[in-house]
Amino acid sequence: MSDSTVHGEPLGDESGLVLLEVSEPHSTVVHRLVTHRLADTPGRTAYWIDARNAVSTHVLYDCASSARALSGLQVARAFTAYQHHTLVREVVRRADPRTELVVAPNVASLYHDSDVPAYEREELFASTLETLSELGEVLGCPVLVTSADDERASAVSEYARTTIQCVHTREGLRLVGPDGNAATEGYWQGEWWQTTIPYWAEVCGTVDRLDPVVAAYDRGLLEVTH
User: Fold this and answer.
1) Rg, Å, the chain Cα set
2) So what's the pLDDT on residue 220?
3) Continuous H helices in the chain
4) Mind listing the pLDDT tens digit for each residue in 184-220?
5) 202 compared with 155, residue with greater pLDDT
6) What range does the domain containing 156 cover?
7) Residue 106 is assigned to a structural domain of this protein
8) 202 in a domain, yes or no?
């Protein structure tokens, strides 16, 4: 993705830890990104490590182009930081070159619960982020994490290779990379990804400016004598 807005394939060729800054813990933009990615990569697998009940199968099926698009998605829920860390390690064990995406919404939230001793939480959380980051780098796939808390998002961003912001506009939800001034190439509107001219110019390329003489000849305004 580099320093640009999110394109027609929102996560692009990004790999490593990708922080998606959302406004609230149950943002459905995560579901949209996951289903959009899986629709373009049939036969691939994805892992969703859930926290705070962020996942909604109803939303996933609403966003998916077909039920088949979700066949490679495996979801596991964590209710404590220890469960979350264990699931991260389990995904590392199961993931292989066919893994297209790993998702961990609300990645930081469980590590600040009272059941985790203060002396242990930072080390445990750092271990989780390092593991997820290395997993994405090794597999060459994005590991998408979210945090709706500014303070925790700051901590996650230290490990993130890329940060994506969700910006609400009148046209819809705009996803932008580190360069906030980049041209908008698409918007989320409900279940749809609305593309714009800059997006199609990147996908299809542009044509050279037509020579005025050639244009005039094509329109029958210029007579060529031999």
Assistant:
1) 21
2) 52
3) 29-39, 57-63, 81-94, 118-139, 150-157, 197-204, 212-218
4) 345 544 444 454 434 433 434 444 444 554 444 444 5
5) 155
6) 16-195
7) yes
8) no
167 in Cβ contact with 173 (< 8 Å):
yes
pLDDT of residue 23: 84
Helix 118-139 vs helix 81-94: angle between axes, to the nearest 10 degrees?
20
Name the phi and psi angles at 71, rounded to 5: -65, -25
- Flag whether 45 is in a domain: yes
| DSSP string over 74-117 | EEEEESSHHHHHHHHHHHHHH--TTEEEEEETTTTGGGGSTTS-
Decide if 128 is inside a domain: yes
Q: Check residue 82 and give its pLDDT.
A: 98
Burial degree of 40 (CB within 10 A; 0-12, 13-18, 19+): middle
Domain count of the chain?
A: 1
Asked if the model's pLDDT at residue 77 lies above 50, the reply is yes
Among the listed ranges 14-28, 82-96, 181-195, which one has the minimum average pLDDT value?
A: 181-195
Q: Is the dihedral of CA 52, 58, 61, 63 positive or negative?
A: negative
CATH number at residue 85: 3.40.50.300
Task: Return the structure tokens found at 44.
Answer: 């691939």
Burial of 224 (0-12, 13-18, 19+ CB in 10 A): exposed
Enter the pTM of the model. Answer: 0.76
In the structure encoding, which two tokens stand for residue 102, read together? 């790993």
At 62, list the tokens.
């609403």
